[in-house]
C-alpha cells in the first residue's frame, strides 16, 4: 500500500529553540530542554492546523465540484423524464394503454369470462 505524504511534520525537538537549553546549567538543563520540546510541540500544532486547513479546503472544493456535477445530472435527468412523459402521453392516446385494446385483455371480459 502506497503512503501518500503531502506534508511532513518533523519531531518536536527539531522545532524547539536551542537557545532555550544550550547555555543551561547542569541543574536546569532538563527543565530547559523540556521547555524547548514544549515550544517545538506548539510549533508542530501550528503546522498541523495549517495543513489540516489546506486539506479541508481542498476537500470542500472537491465537494462543491461533485455537487455541481450532480445538479447538472439531476437537471438533465428531469429534462429527459419530462420529454419521455410528453412522448408517452402522445403515443398512449389518453386511455393509459399503448396497445389500444382497452379493458379486453387476452379475450377476457371484466367478469373473467372467456369470450368466443
Describe the structure.
This protein is mainly alpha-helical. It has two helices and no strands. The longest helix has 64 residues. The protein is rod-shaped and about 100 Å long. It starts with 11 loop residues before the first helix and ends in a 24-residue tail after the last helix.
**Poorly predicted spans:** 102-112
Radius of gyration: 37 Å
Please outline the major beta sheet: none
Mean pLDDT: 78
Number of helices: 2
Extended strand count: 0
What's the N-to-C terminus distance?
73 Å
Query: What's the order of the H and E elements?
Result: HH
Shape: rod-shaped
Helix content: 55-70%
- Beta percentage is under 5%
Structural class computed from helices and strand pairing: mainly alpha
Report a brief summary of the structure:
The chain has 116 residues and is an all-alpha fold.
SSE arrangement:
Elements: H1 12-15, H2 29-92
What attributes does this structure have?
116 residues, mainly alpha, 0% strand, rod-shaped
